[in-house]
């Protein structure tokens, strides 16, 4: 199935809005892509990557494990939560609090020297969710790293013939959501030998709504 055009994706987003009743909270938009020829033995179906979106999702949450100035700068740059080494170690005695931290955020960053501590204490909870933190490069501008991370989504293909990812929220325009979706699809397609065959139905849905499929335009027979 051909990858949808921008116009097709925009129309599917519009239809998805119409399939959801107004709610008392801001809903997220989810992209679901079916993989009709899924084979877990093939590398193209083992993708685990981060993709930079053209339009950031404001509701994306980020936790940072850092100390000193880097922690302060991360908070100023927009990190939703931060934790030092001592606070991390304290979690080893409080599994309930550790689970709460591990389930409370979309993405995680950590200074390299804290990665072993994060792995030891939070790894059992973050690992199965595919949420282990990315290391902060030693000499990187922490503000830029945080801002970039909040514009990123992760694709993790497991053992099912599809993948899904949050690509937007109700407050965004149809075009912004569609462009985010196509950024994801095109990045995934780069690792596939024949994307027009390996990428199947492309669906959009709101949190509490029904899915709407992006339908490629039918070619006219001359």
Instruction: Based on Cα principal axes, name the global outline.
Output: globular
Radius of gyration: 19 Å
Terminal CA distance reads 21 Å
Beta content comes to: 15-25%
Major β-sheet, in short?
4 strands, antiparallel
Structural class: alpha/beta
Instruction: Calculate the mean pLDDT score and round it.
Output: 92
DSSP, total strands? 10
Portion of residues within helices: 25-40%
- Poorly predicted runs are none
Please indicate the count of domains.
Answer: 2
CATH topology descriptor of the largest domain: Ribulose 1,5 Bisphosphate Carboxylase/Oxygenase
Which CATH architecture of the largest domain is right? Answer: 2-Layer Sandwich
Q: What is the CATH homologous superfamily assignment of the largest domain? A: Ribosomal protein L1/L10, rRNA-binding domain
Question: Strands across the major sheet, in which order?
Answer: 8-1-9-10
- Number of helical regions: 8
Supply the CATH class of the largest domain. Alpha Beta
N-to-C SSE string, H for helix and E for strand: HEEEHEHHEHEHEEHHEE
Task: Give a structural overview.
The model has no long low-confidence stretch (mean pLDDT 92). Strands 8-1-9-10 form a 4-stranded antiparallel beta sheet, covered by helices on one side. The chain has 2 domains: 6-56 and 153-213, Ribulose 1,5 Bisphosphate Carboxylase/Oxygenase (2-Layer Sandwich), CATH 3.30.190; 62-149, Ribosomal protein L1/L10, domain II (Rossmann fold). Helix content is 35%, strand content 20%. It is built from 8 helices and 10 strands. It has helices spanning 6-18, 68-76, 85-91, 95-103, 115-126, 142-149, 174-189, 195-198, and strands at 28-34, 48-52, 62-65, 81-83, 107-110, 134-135, 152-156, 162-169, 202-206, 212-213. The two termini are 21 Å apart. The chain is globular. The chain is an alpha/beta fold. α3 (85-91) runs parallel beside α5.
């Amino acid at each position: 199935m051909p990858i949808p055009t921008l116009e097709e994706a925009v129309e599917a987003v519009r239809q998805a809005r119409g399939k959801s009743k107004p709610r008392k909270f801001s809903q997220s938009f989810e992209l679901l892509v079916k993989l009709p020829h899924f084979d877990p033995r093939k590398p193209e179906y083992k993708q685990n990557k981060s993709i930079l979106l053209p339009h950031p999702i404001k509701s994306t949450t980020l936790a940072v494990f850092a100390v000193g100035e880097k922690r302060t700068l991360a908070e100023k740059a927009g990190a939703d939560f931060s934790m030092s080494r001592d606070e991390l170690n304290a979690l080893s005695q409080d599994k309930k609090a550790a689970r709460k931290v591990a389930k409370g955020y979309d993405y995680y960053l950590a200074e390299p020297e804290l990665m072993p501590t994060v792995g030891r204490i939070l790894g059992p909870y973050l690992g199965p969710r595919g949420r282990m933190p990315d290391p902060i490069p030693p000499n990187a501008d922490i503000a830029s790293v945080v801002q970039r991370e909040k514009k990123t989504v992760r694709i993790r293909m497991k053992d099912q013939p599809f993948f899904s990812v949050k690509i937007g929220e109700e407050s965004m325009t149809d075009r912004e959501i569609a462009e985010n979706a196509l950024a994801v699809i095109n990045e995934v397609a780069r690792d596939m030998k024949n994307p027009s065959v390996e990428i199947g139905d492309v669906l959009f849905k709101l949190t509490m709504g029904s899915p709407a499929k992006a339908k490629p335009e039918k070619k006219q027979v001359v």
